[in-house]
# Entry
Amino acid sequence: MGNHKKYWKSEAELSSNNKMIVGLKNNEFAEQLPTDLFLSNKSSLQDSSTNRRDFLKYLGFSTAAATLASCEGPVNRSIPYVVQPERIVPGIANFYATSIADGFDFANVLIKTREGRPIKIENNSKAKVKSSANARVQASVLSMYDSLRLKGPLQKGQEVNWTQLNQNVIDELESMKASNSDVVLLTQTFASPSTSKIIKDFKKKYSNVRHIIYDAISDSKALDAFEIAYGKRALPTYDFSNADVIVSVGADFLGDWQGGGHDLSYVKGRVPVKVGNRIAKMSKHFQLESNMSISGANADKRVALTPNQQKIALARIYGYISGNKFSGTLPENIELSIKKIADSLIKAGNKGVIINGLDDVNAHLLAYEINELLKSLSYKKDELSLIKQGNDKEVLQLIKDLNSGKVKGVIMSGVNPAYTLPNSEEFISGIKKANFSVCFSMKNDETASQSKWVAASPHYFESWGDNEMVNGNFSLTQPTIRPLFDTMQFQDCLLKWMGSANSFYDFIRNNWEQNILENMSWNQALHDGFFKSNSKNIIKKLKFNPITCAEQLSSSKSSVFELVLYSKTGLGDGQQANNPWLQELPDPITRVSWDNYLTVSKFDAQELGLKNYTVANGALDSNYAQITVNGVSLKVPVIIQPGQSKGSVGLAFGYGKKNAMKEEMQIGVNAFKLYQNFNSVQNIEIEAVDETHEFACTQLQNTLMGRGDIIRETTLEVFNTKNVEDWNAITKVSLNHIETPVNSPEVDLWDEFDRSIGHHFNLSIDLNSCTGCGACVIACHAENNVPVVGKTEVRRSRDMHWLRIDRYYSSEETFDGDNKTKDDINGLSDSLSVFKEMENPSENPQVVFQPVMCQHCNHAPCETVCPVAATSHGRQGQNHMAYNRCVGTRYCANNCPYKVRRFNWFLYNNNDEFDFNMNDDLGKMVLNPDVVVRSRGVMEKCSFCIQSTQAVILNAKREGRRVEKGEFNDTCACSAACSTGAMKFGDINEKDSEVSVLKESERVYHLLDTVGTKPNVFYHVKVRNTD
Amino acid sequence: MKGNSKFLQDFFSLLSKTSLMTFFAFILFFSTTFSHNISSQEFDIAKGKSLFNANCASCHKLNKKLIGPALRGVSAKYEKDWLYSWIKNSAAMIKSGDEQAVAIYEEYNKVAMNAFPQLSNEDIDNILAYTDYVPPKPVAPVSGAPVSESSGSSSTNDLILILLSFVLAVLVILLVLINKTLKNIIPQKAVAIDDAKNIKKRIPIWKAFIQNQFLVLVSVVILLLSSAYFAYGYMLQVGVDQGYMPIQPIHYSHKIHAGANQIECQYCHSSAKKSKHSGIPSLNVCMNCHENIADYNGEEDLEKGYTKEFYTNEIKKLYKAVGWDENSQSYTGDTEPVKWVRIHNLPDFVYFNHAQHVTVAGVDCQKCHGPVEEMEILYQHSPLTMGWCINCHRETNIKVKDNEYYTKIHEELSKKYGVEELTAAQMGGLECGKCHY
# Structure
């Protein structure tokens, strides 16, 4: 009897017409061996005097020669300074306070330099505002060592010197002035008082010059709204620390909304602490949004709504608060939720706050009005954020003027309109028509390559500058390294073109000493990097009619599909797209690295025939969707996103860049092409394309399936009213058929080692304050020389991240529901079917983030299986890894219950196959000299940054003192980077240290404590303020 | 026999060369001491030298302009009385309008010479005697490039070796000759050489050996084991560069600096106190002293060719690198970093911190680096292997005294281990992760 069973290796094989499958069936080796290359030329083969014997001789000789040569060690050179700078001691790091202001990211930071080269970025926590560096800011240190940076100025693509360029530009400017033709300065938002002053002076000297500010991802409508409401073009700031109710309508305020940086105050109100008998308090966070954002993931209650529904909902909320009624319809259950949200806002009164992320003037006005009505204390309208100043209308007008010939010259700095404008072709034809165009840029990017002159500009590590991010809060940017290339700053050039002899440094210093510094010295301000002025702003509300706003909002019409454009944690607006750390950083929500994609709800995906599937090698594949907005069409891969509201899709900016990019990083699609009229919401048509896209996704298991020992979660009510045993019970295991707590010594396989002497390091991770922002991941890369492996390797699950942030969705509406479903399972068949179902996330799931790194188990399973004792335990609690001893059996990784060990499958440095920063001399400058670069064939993992803990200990020893309190706090790169304080590192043997206090909390649990590994990393139970 | 005679010729010629050299050296020695005695009859040159070094050397050199003019033969240029008054108070002479005095004043950028009223005429005579003193030219063999490459002690070693091998060769020849004569004697005397039958029957020893399988097995095992032992020993030496003594771009002598001049190690290697690197001093550190020390005047090692000129020439290399113009006594700004060859190379995967050992543990530099103050050319003294590190950690006690960091932990740990003083190993100095990360 014939067997008709069909075996298949991947789902793709099941579809009959797959080209690749058919191709492979006929020809196993898809690529021909290039034998023709060297065998086709018969004559040269015959003429050659080299016969087989000669060949063998050569072979033998070269083998012997190579062997002999390798016996001799290399000669290393040591080259000391000719004149050593006073403050540089080889081997000791220096720190400089500075600030980043690249037009998209603004932050006060500290730069760590070694032997004069910047290697890492830390938070400048002394600064009063914007003291947290996000993942992009953390990674900006690598962008400095980008091998594709411009090495000098260009004229029409040819190298030119600065004197010539400056003279030419001055000549052009003079002739423009003489003919009174318009010249435009098109710049990023500088938020720099000194730059504004220079531009003002420049306009005075050249009266024909206009200044237009352009933000690639615009907040122009929010600015317009604020101008209508308060008469000033700026943005209000928010302080969530004392808020009881936070309602966000489409605003990803834990992400990049209005410049980001809101997570610090948010988290202050999110950690429940019981003091004595007082019940713990927590703010309640409602999120109404269409894409699943990290704000939505952190929310207590998330309502998935299309942008159009959000508008109606906002009007509704205003209606409830002001006592008006507006038209517009919402589904019934949503209507109920909205009512509840409005009620809690009213109840919270001045402790409630609403923020708006809808790209609509009316929506912004309404949100401002609601906060006014609530007299919200969190709404700081007099502390203005100045980091977004772009003006869309002026930019659009400029393109017209350039094409009509009205504007004859354009000088650009910090912008890349040829990439970030939807109508970039129009813009390019415009600057081609202009008499002259100068582009200040670090790279020969899309815009620079079209400009007549390219002024190579320095990285912010090589520049002077000042910022006023929030008014009254000034910060300085100072160079931390001598310029690597022949570059000149925009401001310095402007000064030169005005005929000033001053440098920008002189200018800033004068300006600060005369106008800004009140009683602080310049040197002190430079040392701190920060100065807070005491002057106060008084903002008065102007009159506008909120009712018409609400009416307009509620009457807005929905189309079939709405596209919501957003910026991703990794790339933001795409300035640093050539940064491999950021490309490889998995998105916090989708956990996809190296790509952008269309996020689609499960329902819509089924309707449209869009699919995600896992293939045999454990990687994620999808098909493409053809999306069209007003005739502009793009082909994008698809990710089915739980929590995406039906009828909406999402797409991230920042990808699809081609110019001055390494080939591997020219990835994704350029969403700016769809950003028409600077509107982040677009009506869109979608069509499935039957082509396969391969994703590099670092997590495919999306749900917890009711396994509470991985993430423990409870509600604020339970936390406040019930005993610990009810919500954070110690796991019990069976010992001789008796249930015994897992921490009792009888169930332990190992003998306990006394760790009370000396230091004992622990890391505390609070799941309540972890927003999933990913800054720790990049900080860990920078500190520990973690290699980048590229998309294909990530797809093979060979990513090298020492620290990952797992993200889990609930299968039911809540995680609590998951546990109930699991408990209700009855019998084997039921369990099979139910568990199968639980693999799928719910339509609008709860989301939780969990950073996982080596848990440094005191009873580590990895240590016992290593045949060569390459991994062992230290007295201080760290699980050591001796790379030079490792022979690469990978037993340890297989025996690790947390899957945190990473294997070097290849040599990732000096290898053309991995052409990232470790393959070029410039990129290698970022490496931390205190940590070894690992070679092929060895295992590596988190070390608890032992190089830093040892450094702290050594400093104490050297100075003959005890380690001071809190000295260990920032030694781990991840905990130092964590601005929300979710990660705290320290010595639990040190009395009253932060971490030893945290360890006593009743929220503490250990990951997978059933396996009895006794980790030195502990987590805090996630508490959600749900009903 | 012909070869033998050639060998002897060579041998004697070598012998005569070395004796000739010692002979010349003797002559040189005597001649210098002799001439020294002659000139010191009138004035005390030695005293003059010390006075010169104490008072004049900061501005004057013998053969070269510094801040003031070169002083060699100065007594011939000026009257003695004029010199007395000039040295005692030059400013007064310039004021009085002395022609010669004003000329010098003008020539040297109107910088007046310090007054030395404390010097007596006799002192000045001594100084002048020193400045006039011309040391006799060194005798022939010293001039030019280094003559012989072997040092004195090794040449005597060679001599003994050659003698021994000569004796050995004579013995071998004698043995061969005796054997030959004996063989010649045998047929002459017609002595029957044993009974041939016996020989034929006896199995040769190698055959017997092969037939005895047990012996073969044992010897093969022994052979394998011993070769494995030697191979292992050889392999262990791979990458161990003990004794590595590369040629450096500038012949820097630790023997002169740390030995003869007794400069503290950490004067130049200052970062060893606080950093992981001991640091190779930057050239500005060298110039702290060498701005004034342009010539070498210390001891010479003529046999190796380390003459004064040789050392002075090395100082010139420093000047070139740092961009120091001796004539104008100023920096030209034209620099060129020195590319030293690194001697102590630890692999990347080892973390070593100088401060930990130097400042915290108070280990002498010599403990690892050997007798640096005796090294003309620096070499790697220690093997720098992990076993070597660990041995020391096992044997060395923690320096607890006056270090508050250790107070508590030392008390608790020593109680736990039941010892008075803890070794570095007991403190955790053997944990992998302390040095490998």
The domain at 224-385 of chain A is CATH 3.40.228.10 (Dimethylsulfoxide Reductase; domain 2). Chain A is about 30% helix and 20% strand. The longest strand of chain A covers residues 681-694.
